[in-house]
Write a structure and sequence with these properties.
Layout (H helix, E strand, L loop, with lengths): L2 H8 L11 H11 L6 E5 L5 H9 L4 E6 L2 H14 L5 E5 L11 E7 L8 H11 E14 L5 H7 L5 H10 L2 E8 L2 H21 L6 H19 L3 E10 L3
Parallel strand pairs: 1-2, 1-4, 2-3, 4-5
Antiparallel strand pairs: 5-7, 6-7
Helix pairs in contact: 1-8, 8-9
Length: 245
């Protein structure tokens, strides 16, 4: 079983692939889409959960998503068909960093996908290229809530603390107009959902040749979370506007 398949199982009960609950996602979309008739782009959309939620509640919205996973995009298409929003959704199978569009977007989303661009500021630089005048960016990024261990830094990279993360964004020419720091409940719920879904799949499929590997992966990831980064890692989602267009 490859990494993509494992990720799909892990997120079966938490389709937003970030530590955010449904109310937080709803509020972030409300702040990012004040009119309801915007054009939205998700860079690294996966199965399109952000776009699908926006489309399902805003009948005048149009959206596009970009991802390298054909399986995830196929899942997004199936769900769009089920919700009746397929005609307003365009999906692109390609690297997010290579995507180009002749038309700008009112909201550019990249939550939990900044690795696709090499970090927070490169992701914002890419978003800026797609943004319509007066548009907004919804971005989600990890930060260090406490001093991390060397093992945690090795896993997540050289993140800043929350205040420094926001300072970097502001210095890059952006103004936060809304933000959400994931609560301990959201952070824990995300981890329990991911590794619990993996473990449940393994226990439900004991005869599958991948069962042992999947269970071992769930155990290892749960242990990494509890012992390596639970007390240090945080997640912030920001709705941004350009300070000067």
């Amino acid at each position: 079983m490859n990494r993509e398949q494992i990720s799909g199982i892990a997120h079966a009960d938490h389709p937003i692939k970030s530590p955010l609950d449904d109310d937080s996602v709803r509020r972030l979309l409300e702040r990012g889409l004040p009119r309801g008739d915007e054009r939205v782009l998700d860079l690294g959309c996966g199965s399109g959960e952000w776009l699908l939620r926006a489309l399902a509640t805003r009948p005048d919205l149009h959206a596009e998503g970009v991802d390298i996973s054909e399986d995830a995009l196929a899942q997004a298409r199936r769900e769009a068909d089920r919700l009746g929003v397929r005609e307003r959704l365009v999906l692109h199978h390609r690297e997010a960093a290579d995507f180009a569009s002749p038309q700008p977007f009112d909201l550019v989303v990249s939550v939990g996908a900044t690795h696709a661009f090499g970090g927070l500021l490169p992701t914002l630089a890419a978003a800026r290229e797609h943004l319509a005048p007066g548009g907004r960016v919804l971005i989600g990024e990890g930060f260090w809530d406490r001093s991390p261990s060397p093992e945690a830094v090795e896993m997540f990279g050289d993140l800043a603390d929350l205040a420094t993360t926001v300072d970097l964004v502001v210095a890059d020419g952006w103004t936060p107009v809304h933000g959400h720091v994931s609560t301990r409940g959201e952070l824990d719920a995300y981890e329990w959902a991911c590794w619990g879904s993996l473990a449940s799949w393994a226990l439900d499929h004991p005869a599958d040749p991948d069962s042992g590997h999947v269970l071992a992966t769930a155990t290892a990831r749960r242990t990494e979370w509890l012992r390596t980064y639970r007390d240090a890692w945080g997640f912030v989602s920001l709705v941004l506007r350009q300070t000067s267009s």
